[in-house]
Structures are given as C-alpha cells and as structure tokens.
Amino acid sequence: MFNKIYEKIRKFIKKFGFIFIYIFIFLILTMDLPYYISAPGGLMNTKDKIKNTNFKMSGSLNMAYVTEIHATIPTLIWAWINPDWDVETEAETVTGSESVEDMEFRNKMMLEEASNTALKLAYEKSNIEYKMKNVKVYLTYIDDLAKTNLQVGDQILKVDNTKINTKEDLYNYISTKKVGDKVTFEVIRNNKKTSKKATLIDVQGYPKVGALVSETFNLKSNHPIKLKFKESESGPSGGLMLTLTLYSYLNEIDLTHGHTIVGTGTIDEFGNVGEISGVKYKLIGAVNKGADIFLVPAGSNYKEAKKVKNEKGYKIDLVPVKTFDEALKYLENL
User: Helices 279-288 & 300-312, crossing angle to 10 degrees?
Assistant: First the structure.
C-alpha cells in the first residue's frame, strides 16, 4: 500500500514538480525583506501638477524625486554592488517607535501643507488677493519622550478650551505654559470628538508636547488654481519648485528660457527654502534626465550636491538658494 502511495507521489512530482520550482523561485525573487533601498529617481514636470492652465513654457520646471524600493533579494544584491544605491533597515526609515503607517500619513500631510503654502506664497508674490478657508491642524508625529495619549492623525480643535484655528494658535498657547503643566486637548479621532491629555516636557529649555503638527487649508481667489498629485507622491521637498511654477503660470512668465530646470527644497510661508534629504539621489537623477540647472537649498544640501558633482564630473549648473526671491531672481536673469 505504501509503495503505491509513494509511486503516485513520485509520478506527481515528476509531472508537476517544475511548477513548484517556478513558484518557489518567484517567491524568493519577489518576497519583501525588512530593508528599504534609496536610489536615484527621475523628474516630475511641475506643470503636470496644475490642472487648469493653458500657459506654455519653452523649457520646463521640474521637481526631483528619490526612488524608494522595498528590498527583495535581487534588488538588495544590486544595491550592494551599485555605489549609487543605499540600503537602510526598516527600523531606520521611521523615527523611534513610529509605525510605517504613521510615517506615510505624516508625509502625505506634509505634501498637502507644502502645496497649499506654495500656492499661498505664489498669490502673495503675484499681488493676488486670496482667502484661507477650512483650516485644520493635525498631529503628524509624537516623540517617544512625549507624555500624552494623543495619536498621529488627531485633528486638534481646542487646548484647555482655547480654540485652535492655526498652528500658530497652538504654539502661542503652549508657550504660555511651563514644563510639567498638564493640558487637555479636544480632538477629532475616527470622526468623533474626544478629550486627550498631555504633560508638557522640556525640549531645549521650552515647554513642548513633544509632537509635530501640519496645517491644511483651502484658498479662494479670483485666480483659482487646482493642484493634483498621485497617490504615491508625498513629502514637502517640492515646495520651492511648485512655488516657482505657480508664480510663473499666475503671471504668464516663462522662467525657463528654454532650459530644463530641476530643483528641490521645502518652502515656508515667508519664502525661506529649507533643506531636504536625498539630495545625492536627486542630483544624479536630474543629470541622468539631461537637466541643465539644479536649484538646491544653500548650506549642507549644496555642499553635498557639490561634492557629488565634483566626484562624478557633472557639467550641470548647481545653484544654491536660500529664498524664493533668490531663486526667482536667478531664473529671471538667465
């Protein structure tokens, strides 16, 4: 009896064994490992982010991005061979005990805040009137040292019965307190109002909750602009280039002068350009796509980009900028 069963199994394996081998190889090659890979990315033409305009430029303004890959065995092997690819563990890609989901939520909120800030600044630089509506303040990060039952994703409505309309309202109220004070938050969580607590901690000598917040809002103007982003896009590093593009379209000024211009850097409401991560990969990606000019935040980002440019012998024009006005003046004088 056992001989017959063995013979049937042997014949089955002989007949269909190659299928199991293919399945095994497929699983090995596609199985996600607890590593992330950062690699040179490409360019995103910022005009593609604006839905309602017919203005055309002779060149292009572009955001640069980093290619981020959830590692598999083949990509991990290639990353060890390729000097332009870097590997991080899953734990290194998040902060403290933060989950990947919390990190992704924060990056999505930062993209929305950055795009709103870019449009607001472009209106102001173009002397176009606007109104801010539907302002919301969300918690996007909580430090491990924070003493609170707040959660990432909470929308903050009040602190100790003080209404919070903007981030500044929150910062101003907390600044009136002392380290060790207890405060009560009214928040919306899972579409329900609820009360949460926090004990303020010492952060570089100041009372803080130990959290980060993002502010989202809508802008109403006689020159309406609608922006669109892919589900896969996130983060604030396209703020500078988006502001330049919006300004260009609002005023119908071709800032490119026929060049392929790439840039990176955050933007705040005052027009200051902030540093970003992954500048090496963005520069390499820009060069690979034939860019003529790369705008980069002045400071450590510029130093890193300049080092990569010199090491690889790139001919691209590397331009450090501190503010929107600096970047605008450079492009106007091309």
Answer: 40
